[in-house]
Design a protein that fits this description.
10 helices, mainly alpha, about 75% helix, 2 domains, about 325 residues, single chain
């Protein structure tokens, strides 16, 4: 959707040009303390209000200011996105960071495929084809993060041995139900029946929780398999783009290949947005024509610790040196 054109008369009201016009017309008329200069000042002010907002110099000033504001807003969104991406990268285990770094190198190969690279541009920062590489890498990073979260969840559930707990709980509930029915059939006292019923209800609720945990673990396992499959597909797609960039000399063919890859990427992003437990990772890249890149920020070297001084190695002043002091 194209942005709406600015209301130049409303912009004029808030501009320094309006202040200058008021001072030079109505202001000078009031300072003269005469009726004719005041009438002339008000008339000139009205004419200025009508014509100045439509003059080219004022429109250019408004457009430049709005463009500067939009650039500042885009830069702020871009900075927030980069901070978010770096946070995701830092949260990955070394093995997954290594996978991401290797695919980053593949993207470098695509950009640098030959001196006359097909996707080279006079303005690489605004090239839409290169920006699509950024989108591919952002989705790949999200898949890595989701894979790690799912594996950690499944490892926790596995350590609790939920299937065994569920099996034991089902057997326990069946036994308690039989005991309760037998006691009820014998005409047991109300207090005993009430106590057993409460206990049975508690164990039934526990059984239902265990069933939900089992279902969630099964769903997580299915999601994990799909995430790994999408990772592998995306990895191969990006490597195929590298092969095309190196082998073909047809820019239109490579562009079509990138477009087809990104089109399938939309389906992946839609699926990711449907994972309720990963809503925080479902955000898209900022809507800007600028590139966001895909490289991790360089790791700053840590400052070297100051040397430890061994007190036994410190030379103490001699008696003659102490006397000279």
């Amino acid at each position: 959707m194209d942005p709406q054109p600015p209301n130049y008369h409303a912009e004029f009201l808030k501009s320094p040009h309006h202040v200058v016009l008021g001072v030079l017309t109505v202001g000078l008329g009031l300072m003269s303390a005469a009726i004719l200069p005041l009438i002339a000042g008000v008339t000139l002010y009205a004419l200025g209000w009508i014509y100045l907002p439509d003059m080219p110099f004022f429109r250019k000033w408004v457009n430049r200011r709005n463009e500067a504001g939009q650039r500042a807003e885009e830069a702020a969104k871009l900075n927030q996105f980069i901070i978010r991406r770096e946070s995701l990268l830092r949260s990955l285990l070394p093995e997954r960071r290594g996978r991401y770094s290797r695919l980053v190198q593949v993207c470098h190969d695509i950009e640098n495929a030959g001196s006359d690279s097909l996707i080279a541009s006079s303005d690489p920062g605004g090239d839409p084809r290169l920006r699509k590489l950024d989108e591919l890498m952002w989705t790949y990073l999200r898949l890595l993060s989701i894979e790690q979260s799912l594996e950690q969840f499944l490892q926790t559930e596995k350590s609790d041995d939920v299937p065994s707990l569920l099996k034991d709980a089902e057997a326990e509930v069946a036994r308690l139900s039989a005991d309760y029915d037998a006691l009820k059939a014998k005409g047991g006292d109300a207090a005993s029946l009430d106590s057993k019923q409460r206990y049975l209800g508690s164990r039934l609720e526990r059984l239902e929780v265990l069933r939900k945990r089992t279902q969630r673990a099964q769903q997580a396992q299915s999601n994990l398999e799909l995430v790994v499959s999408e990772q592998d597909r995306l990895d191969q797609q990006i490597k195929l783009l590298r092969a095309d960039a190196v082998a073909t000399k047809n820019a239109e063919t490579l562009t079509a290949r990138i477009d087809a890859t990104v089109e399938h990427l939309d389906q992946t992003n839609k699926w990711l947005s449907e994972l309720d437990e990963f809503k925080d990772l479902a955000g898209d890249m900022p809507a800007t024509d600028l590139r966001v890149g895909y490289e991790a920020a360089p790791v700053m070297p840590t400052a070297a610790a100051p040397p430890v001084i061994d007190p036994s190695q410190v030379r103490r002043p001699t008696a003659r040196q102490r006397q000279s002091q």
